[in-house]
Amino acid sequence: MRGLVVLGSTGSIGRQTLDIVRRFPDRFRVIGLAAGSNREALRQQIEEFKPELGFFLGSEQPIAVSDKTYRFVSMEEMVAHPAVEIVMVGTVGRVGLAPTLAALRAGKTVALANKEVVVMAGEMVVAEAQRCRTTILPVDSEPNAVWQCLRGENDEDISRVIVTASGGPFRHRAPEELQQVTQQEALNHPTWRMGKKITVDSATLMNKGFEVIEAHHLFNLPYRKIEVVIHPESMVHSMVEFRDGSVKGVICPPDMRMPIQYALSYPHRWANPDIPRLDPVSVGHLTFEPLDPSRFPCYQVALEAGKAGGTYPAVLSAADEVAVEMFLFRQIGFLDIAKLVKAALDAHHPVRQPSLEDILAADAWAREFTANQVPT
Amino acid sequence: MRGLVVLGSTGSIGRQTLDIVRRFPDRFRVIGLAAGSNREALRQQIEEFKPELGFFLGSEQPIAVSDKTYRFVSMEEMVAHPAVEIVMVGTVGRVGLAPTLAALRAGKTVALANKEVVVMAGEMVVAEAQRCRTTILPVDSEPNAVWQCLRGENDEDISRVIVTASGGPFRHRAPEELQQVTQQEALNHPTWRMGKKITVDSATLMNKGFEVIEAHHLFNLPYRKIEVVIHPESMVHSMVEFRDGSVKGVICPPDMRMPIQYALSYPHRWANPDIPRLDPVSVGHLTFEPLDPSRFPCYQVALEAGKAGGTYPAVLSAADEVAVEMFLFRQIGFLDIAKLVKAALDAHHPVRQPSLEDILAADAWAREFTANQVPT
After folding, report:
1. Complex ipTM, two decimals?
2. I want to staple B326 with a disulfide (CB 3.0 to 4.6 A). Which of A282, B13, B220, B331 is the partner?
């Protein structure tokens, strides 16, 4: 039995993680569940999985459940519990950073779906994992595919990582129409069902920029070895080219339970008939197209911030988080997301080799700066 | 420096193997070269690579070269030379069987491109490799891809192997036109440049049946776990599905130098700019279609023989070798290949759990039987 904590347990990743736990009840003991927006869903999960520890963002009052034995604690305390072996970080945005660092410092394996953690503080998070001799397992389908392709391979043999991008719902939309797209349209992803933030990030391709930054840190690759290609079917989740010209890819239907389960079962693989199977004939075609960065300013901005390093990626992530929220609340148009993020990056005074405090300060500054912008 | 023997050195696999040796001259010492049809090409290779040992089929007289120090020996003696570490079996048809067994018995690593060896005597060859604690490395692009996908994985996690087939030049040809196709058309493979025998086998899809039998033996898989799908671009060389639904594939341009080099460099990978790189965007589409066995009787016949086991696969391989030769000499039509092979299988009295003698007897019987058939 592996002691498991799920952060963001009522979100898309959290619910699918608990689906895996339901399928393999003898393999896991749920030690803690943490959520931030759906109190009733968390209550039901606590009733069902009976964790020792619970957390609900902004509340110190435990949620009432029939079994009164569980305690409400902070996420940092939850992840450090001695019975915890693996922490699924399924939160969104900045909120996952502190508990991720706490989990690594307590020597826990971190299954990381909350990619903003690596975008904001990639060097620090990777260094902490190394220092504490523990591991970050990527849950996001693209870096998870890269990680699978690297299984049994040597890092020095990697010549290139090819990250695939569905292109989102606006791949064929004329650039002049993009400002007018509705929230509904942006939330209608062609291949993946995900949370709202990541779905909008997928429509802007900010998400793909984040993944490039994530791959840079998690696989210790220079940016020149990371390539992005548009692949509308989302069946090839990413590829790795080795120096002898061989390329491995992970090819299967888009379903997050596969990478979630792989992170939880690693180094084993467990039979799970719930996970859909590849049928190449019914897929018919796998398509690859170039990514035109001029159509996706968020992608460009993300790459520049990633390459600039320092506190720039923290500003990128924070400004994007605020701008996406403004878009979802209909305060700004779709193209304003990139404009607001770029404005924050342009106005930022970066810190090189930032401490956690520097990163959090840059994050706070970028949030305030972005929230106060009036889109033109 | 790895001591290397190349059997079939003047053929397609042999020449490409020596290309790899030329690219990495410090890594190999060529101990022996054996060929069977091109005396002048072998002479040039002996001049260039200065092996200690040479062999030319049907000749005990050494080919004259300026350096007189090399000796002419049998292939069995060549592969057992103490300085040999790895033997590339790049021969075609039956001729590779005895030297493969000799190499395994001498504890040498066998890089096997001559798939008929495994078709004829799969159980025996695999058992010999195990008994002699050595390894058979598949060079053929499809099993090589499967082998690469299994790197770092556990055999018990394999749920399915998906072998891809280009479909050959007659994928869209009406069945009633197939009898009239010319030797030229059959030798014009859409994606691969190979020797004549394997090119005709690819047009009939006998080759794909052989590969299924090969995968069954080399990866110890029941036939129900091996699937074939038509993939005209020959970029996805095969895929492996694991029990958690994840599928890995090897995806790169069709060029035999990649799998040849992988077998020679394993477990390392060497940078080789001669090998073409995958450009997913220029590929554009990867297509998958069902294989219609009714269009490819050789494929059906091969699968039946493989599943029947015993001496049937030896008869399959021998009858096909003769029938393809008859087709190439314009003695029979294209569809007669399947008919002759089927006739031999139907007339054969099989031996269960055959010895090498049984296999060679079945092979000899099938050759004579097939050569004496008059196509209807």
Report:
1. 0.95
2. B331
